[in-house]
Design goal:
The complex is a heterodimer of chains A (154) and B (119). Chain A has one domain: Heat Shock Protein 90 (2-Layer Sandwich). The relative contact order of chain A is 0.18. The termini of chain A are far apart. Chain A has a five-stranded antiparallel beta sheet with strand order 1-2-3-5-4, covered by helices on one side. Chain A is 32% helix and 25% strand. Chain A has four helices and five strands. Chain A is of the alpha+beta class. The mean pLDDT of chain B is 94. A six-stranded mixed beta sheet of chain B has the order 1-2-3-4-5-6. With 119 residues, chain B is α/β, with parallel strands linked by helices. The chains are: A alpha+beta (154), B alpha/beta (119). The interface between A and B is medium-sized, with 26 and 21 residues.
């Protein structure tokens, strides 16, 4: 694995794909080190901006940050070097991000909801996902989890 | 007023003014570096036992939930000894995360250090 997210040759940069009218998609492969989160967040934000998501691009970046942090802390329980794949694509109506891990498969959405307590910030990642995105789906896989999130264009 | 020693560039300055400790944070803070910020902030509280902790976020354009958790832990620690935490110069993206988490109520949020010191 490289130090940062990798961009497969067939995906191109988001700017290129938008200019050419080609499928607007990007794939990022990373491993489960927290220092990799910022690079992915910024790449997703740049993609979302170029896809016309406007001010919601920052929200999408935050949500991806939180989702990756959850994978690293919970699905992989802090183990480094574990694989994570991120796909980003857009169509005329929305930008969609899918995050795949090969961790313990625990579905965060199935965890019992806690009463909100401002002095106990645990679960803030899930709060961000649910309050900022239009769609949040955790799809259990035989060997991990697939999270799909999407945000409609303004 | 006396300057305090810090051990990380993420907390570039800290000083003691009366019963207050005023520190600044710097950089984008996420799961990667929030443990370093946590250690420094808690060390400053433990070593100086301030009544008021002012955290200047002027140079913090971004925080994720792990960084927000450090702020909340600071509040909890300060409250145990009857103290409180003021946040100042909160940047828009950080303010947005505090809003989402409904956390504004547990901090005193001011626009500058002078106002924080007087509250």
């Amino acid at each position: 694995m490289s130090d940062g997210p990798t961009f497969p040759d067939d995906s191109g940069s988001p700017d290129d794909s938008l200019r050419s009218g080609a499928p607007r998609a990007m794939k990022l492969d990373l491993t489960s080190e927290p220092e990799r989160i910022a690079g992915v967040r910024k790449a997703v934000e740049a993609f979302a901006l170029s896809a016309g998501l406007g001010t919601s691009s920052a929200d999408l970046g935050l949500v991806v940050n939180e989702a990756l942090a959850n994978v690293m802390r919970h699905a992989y329980q802090g183990r480094r070097g574990q694989p994570i794949s991120v796909w980003v694509d857009c169509d005329a109506s929305e930008v969609t991000v899918r995050i795949r891990d090969w961790g313990n498969g625990v579905n965060p959405a199935a965890m019992p909801a806690r009463a909100h307590d401002p002095a106990t910030p645990g679960g803030l990642g899930l709060i961000c996902l649910r309050s900022l995105m239009d769609r949040v789906e955790f799809t259990p896989q035989p060997d991990g989890m697939l999270l799909t999130i999407s945000k409609r264009r303004p | 007023m006396s300057d305090l020693t810090t051990t990380t560039e993420l907390v570039p300055t800290a000083r003691k003014e009366g019963d207050a400790v005023i520190l600044s944070l710097r950089g984008e803070i996420d799961l990667h570096n929030s443990p370093e910020v946590r250690k420094q902030v808690l060390d400053l509280i433990n070593q100086n036992k301030p009544v008021k902790l002012v955290m200047n976020l002027d140079q913090v354009p971004y925080m994720d939930s792990s960084a927000i958790a450090v702020l909340v832990e600071s509040v909890q620690k300060m409250r145990k000894s009857g103290g409180r935490v003021c946040l100042t110069n909160v940047q828009p993206r950080v303010k947005s995360v505090l809003d989402i988490a409904h956390l504004n109520s547990i901090f005193t949020i001011t626009t500058n250090e002078q106002e924080a010191k007087s509250k």
